[in-house]
Design goal:
This protein is mainly β and 78 residues long. The protein has two helices and six strands; from the N terminus they run ββαβββαβ. It has a single domain, classed as Ferrous iron transport protein A (FeoA) (SH3 type barrels, Roll). The chain is globular, with a radius of gyration of 11 Å. The N and C termini lie close together (10 Å). This is Ferrous iron transport protein A. GO terms for molecular function: transition metal ion binding. Keywords: Iron.
């Protein structure tokens, strides 16, 4: 089994499965958007200079953008 790591470490084009969210650091809107443990996501865009990260949630075919400061609280496995 691979170790989980924070979402901000993924490169553009990589897919991963969400394993854990630090709920004390993230607003409830993340759960409402479908960022739940077991969800497969793909990084579509990473803004320069610690800009936003564009994610494709494969199960709902939804595109969202989150801050890098929020991505460090979402742990994924490839």
């Amino acid at each position: 089994m691979q170790k989980s790591f924070s979402l901000d470490l993924l490169e553009v084009g990589e897919q991963a499965t969400i394993r854990q969210l630090d709920s004390s650091e993230l607003p409830s809107k993340f759960y409402e958007m479908g960022l739940l443990p077991g969800t497969v996501i793909e990084v579509r865009h990473k803004g320069p200079f610690h800009g936003p990260i564009g994610l494709h949630i494969l199960s709902s075919n939804m595109l969202i953008a989150i801050r890098k400061s929020e991505a460090v609280h979402i742990f994924v496995e490839k």
